Amino acid sequence: MPGKSRHNPEQLTTYYYPLPTTHHPLMFRVSRKIEFCYGHRLLGYEGKCRHLHGHNGVVVVTIEVSELDDRGMVLDFGDIKRVVSQWIDEHIDHRMILSREDPAVPALEALGEPMFLLDVNPTAENIAKLIYDFASAEGFPVVEVQLWETPNCLATYRSGR
Ligand SMILES: [Zn+2]
Predict the structure, then answer these.
(1) Catalytic: 23?
(2) 24-158: which CATH architecture?
(3) What dihedral angle (degrees, nearest 10) is formed by the CA atoms of 107, 110, 113, 115?
């Protein structure tokens, strides 16, 4: 029955290339890199990071939308820089990011050292979350914040969607 063979081109379309019944929506995504310096130390940790030390951190803020604006953009990179970079500059750049529980806090406070205190350990993971939460609260459709603590160590905080 040559007309009903599975090699018939019309049937190939039917059998081998069905339209997908479910699919994920396609999205546009842009990222902005921001560099800053910070100091910290980790409590309850036995490695080198239990001592006060610093990092040249690189944070990458990623924004995602399903439709572009009138300019054909997800968002102006300048807007992320203006809002997020400014907050980083004013609050955590060149500061000690420490746990509120850290016994070093009163001594640094007495010396007038600038600090940013967290309710949690100031790991790269928690600093990534701090920046994610700030950017989200400012209304950016942020889906992911990555913090490169060193050129080899990356922590990511991202939306589960
Ligand atoms: Zn560190």
Answers:
(1) no
(2) 2-Layer Sandwich (3.30)
(3) 70
